UniProtKB/TrEMBL annotation:
Methyltransferase type domain segment(s): 58-149
KW Flavoprotein (keyword) present: no
Domain of life according to the entry: Bacteria
Keywords: Methyltransferase, Transferase
Matching InterPro entries: Methyltransf_11, SAM-dependent_MTases_sf
Gene Ontology biological-process entries: methylation
Coiled coil: none
Pfam families to which the protein is assigned, alphabetical: Methyltransf_11
Descriptive protein name: Methyltransferase domain-containing protein
Length: 280
């Protein structure tokens, strides 16, 4: 096979991979997951970056826009970008009174000029782009020199990182060159991706308290119904009741291990990495 043919094949495989990602994240009801559980993380990120009125802000892999909306409410000129148009449509409909742009965009090939934004951020979004270095390069490229960059990413050791580790054995292996999303929650990995292009880098492990569930089975059922990657894992074994039962047991056991019970009920602490820095 010639070099040109190899390049064309890789490009086609990449297009197919992105199409699968779009379909996966359009499954279920991610907006509900955001509203009921993870929405506070958008506020954590915007506060950590101290977004100011009049600043131009890009939210990469924004989903339904929990971070971008908060930036817009501070008076920023905000853009919510995501690969999945269905998520942007939900975000736009859910926030009709908030003035911001909703752009379909690939985190690995953003359609914006160099140095275009004062703040570039991503809240549990860019970590799911399959090629980490490409995505990191785009984050840096689109931020102006002296601009700020911030990320919230699930850690491998936290609840959602362990969720993906559990589901890994139930889904087809990714193509060569694709990195696991929770690696973005490892400090050394983030430092390697960003290199010396970001200064004043701060990386803090924090937790999101989650009290929505009564136990591991409720955790499993919620993700099986509403969260695209989990729905896709079940779909891969739709015709295999034994394998589906194994996935049921594994996810319920994970949820139970990740929570604690006391007089107040069942509480989980989902660990994430908060990253902030200034682009050189």
């Amino acid at each position: 096979m010639s070099t040109t043919e190899t390049t064309d094949t890789a490009a086609q495989q990449d297009l197919e991979l992105k199409a699968r990602h779009r379909r996966m994240w359009a499954l279920g009801d991610y907006d509900r997951v955001c509203r009921e559980i993870v929405s506070p993380l958008g506020g954590v990120l915007v506060d950590a970056l101290d977004v100011q009125s009049g600043e131009r802000v890009l939210d990469v892999a924004a989903g339904t826009g929990s971070a971008a909306v908060r930036a817009a409410r501070r008076g920023a000129d905000a853009v919510a970008s995501d690969l999945t148009p269905e998520l942007l449509d939900v975000g736009r409909e859910s926030h009709p009174d908030d003035t911001l742009a909703w752009d379909v965009a690939d985190a690995e090939a953003l359609p914006y000029e160099d140095d275009a934004f004062d703040v570039v951020m991503s809240c549990i979004g860019v970590m799911f782009a399959p090629h980490h270095q490409r995505a990191a390069d785009e984050l840096v490229r689109t931020a102006r020199p002296g601009g700020r960059m911030g990320l919230v990413c699930w850690t491998p050791e936290g609840t959602i990182g362990r969720l993906f580790a559990t589901m890994k054995q139930y889904v087809p292996p990714p193509p060569p060159g694709v990195s696991p999303p929770p690696l973005w929650g490892q400090e050394d990995h983030v430092r390697e991706l960003l290199g010396d292009r970001v200064e004043d880098l701060e990386l803090r492990r924090m937790t999101l308290p989650v009290t929505l569930f009564e136990g591991g089975e409720q955790f499993r059922d919620y993700f099986a119904k509403h969260y695209g990657p989990t729905i896709a894992a079940y779909a891969a074994h739709a015709g295999d009741p034994d394998r589906t039962a194994e996935l049921d047991r594994d996810l319920a056991a994970l949820g139970e291990r990740e929570g604690t019970r006391d007089e107040a009920g069942f509480t989980m602490q989902w660990e994430y990495l908060l990253v902030t820095g200034r682009v050189r």
